[in-house]
Design goal:
This protein is of the alpha+beta class and about 80 residues long. Helix content is about 40%, strand content about 20%.
Length: about 80
């Protein structure tokens, strides 16, 4: 099975963003991280995908999860 591309749009001070990144690390999930606090282009991309400003926004192979929903993320990743 092809590994899904995981992108997380976050800010350094976001508690749930850090929980999500810890979850990915614990489960060996590789991810790309974008700091939407400083990267305006990625902030716009995140807003276009999710329709909102809240972080984290997690894109897993094109499926968007807003917030750290561990059950939903696990399901999409097949964990």
């Amino acid at each position: 099975m092809k590994e899904k591309t995981v992108k997380i749009y976050s800010t350094p001070t976001c508690h749930y963003c850090n929980l999500a990144k810890d979850f990915f690390k614990e489960n060996g999930v590789r991810y790309e991280e974008y700091n939407v606090g400083t990267d305006m282009e990625k902030r716009k991309e995140m807003m276009d995908k999710s329709g909102q400003m809240g972080v984290p926004v997690i894109d897993i192979g094109g499926e968007v999860v807003v917030g750290f929903d561990e059950a939903q993320i696990s399901k999409i990743l097949g964990l």
